[in-house]
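REQUEST FORM: STRUCTURE PREDICTION
Request ID: SP-0412
Submitted by: Lab K.M.
Chain count: 1
Length (residues): 224
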Amino acid sequence: MMPGLTLRRLRVVLLIGLLVFCFSSSSRSSTADKGSTTYDSTLYVGSETCKTCHEDIYNKFETTPHWKTTFTKKGPQWQGCEACHGPGKEHVEGGGDKSKIFVFEGKTAEQVSKRCLGCHEYGEEHANFDRSQHNLNDVSCISCHSPHHAKEKQFLLVNKQPELCYGCHTDIKQDFNRPFRHRVEQGLIQCSDCHNQHGGFLTRQVRATASQDQVCFKFRTRAG
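STATUS: Completed
RESULT:
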């Protein structure tokens, strides 16, 4: 191979990498960065106050992974109900006025996901959500997750896999009834074992590993 051609290819790869980095940085800056904003702690009332009116929801909240936010020392903007719905003082003083807090119902997919990413964008699993097909097609976090009424406790899913995925990807279901198939219907592998629903760099958001075959070997070991 000619040295000049190799150098040009290297430049193209570096340019693509730089563009991806810039896009990622600009996208993340648009989400709610709780750590860089000054908050007035007097506007927060705490989850126990929310319980006085919303006891049923509060009791369910105690059984979810989000409950651990009530123990964080980062500040009231990261804790409990108000980590998602915002400061509750005006809501309480207004007799439950919903316009004084962030209510997910009726919000756009962008507004909903931005609120969730205020906490969740910092993990590797969700870092690429801005470029995900779900985000680009206005599928928000609460299209798949329900903080208060989840049917699948671990990830707060509104339904278990693969039924949850089939709700939109109806054309894929038939593939798992073929003679040679992934054993999705038998529960031996899940859609998210192979695909990162929160986004990625590979085609069809396939999960990446140091050795790409490792994703397949995980399934083969489990399925036998």
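NOTES: The two ends are 44 Å apart (CA to CA).
Reviewed by: T.R.
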